[in-house]
Amino acid sequence: MRHKFGYKKLNRTSEHRKALIKNMLNSLIKYEQITTTLPKAKVLKPQADKIITLGKKESLHNTKTLFSKLQDTKSANKVIKTLSKRYEKRSGGYTRIVKAGFRYGDNAPMAVIEFVDRDIQAKKVDVKKKDTSKETKKTTPKEEKLDKKKSSAWRITKWKKLFMWKNRMIIVE
User: Which pTM value belongs to this model?
Assistant: First the structure.
């Protein structure tokens, strides 16, 4: 029986578990939805709710506590500026866990943990947009060969020949 055991150990040492939770919190704040295993999501849910509650109370102490827990200024600022404003009228229950089947390979139960009323565009934070303004110049293979000859550092004339022998350049006159 597991009576009076306060948290799940997740089969990790205490330092590894703390780092795992911190990194998952930062990812959840950044993308507002992450996919992970069900036990990790269940451990992460109360932590995320506590972080949002800390961000809602505007004081220097809470701000410093947020920075020390997340150890990332961008995440802490997002909690203070956007997430706390979004959940101003909601008292608790900022995250939800949706079961997402089983992982191929080890059959681990997977889950999606996300913020309630999340911003859908937050998932596309790291996706780089393609620059369509640059036009690629199309050349024929003959022109490419000429360009390579002109730009090559080794200018070889008619009477000199360049040989490669055991990764050494030998110029024979």
Answer: 0.71
